[in-house]
Write a structure and sequence with these properties.
This protein is an all-alpha fold. The protein contains three helices and no strands. It starts with 8 loop residues before the first helix and ends with a helix.
């Protein structure tokens, strides 16, 4: 789908350099994909109790008592 938007040329140039893209279209699409994938990874970590270092042991009083020493 074609959409006309105003772009910040300085930010676009920096993004193209960072992403290794050559055209405005490739830069915008690569940036959108990067952000979307980052969001997917964040959601996976947040939805995985082991993803942030909290697991089944957090409910075990013996394990938690040793952890607090």
């Amino acid at each position: 789908m074609k959409t006309m938007i105003d772009l910040n040329d300085e930010a676009l140039a920096l993004a193209a350099k960072e992403l290794g893209t050559a055209t405005k279209k490739d830069t915008v699409n690569a940036a959108l994909e990067f952000v979307a994938e980052r969001r997917r990874r964040i959601e996976q970590v947040l939805n995985d109790p082991y993803g942030i270092g909290v697991g089944a042991d957090i409910g075990d009083p013996e394990v938690m008592n040793r952890a607090r020493r």
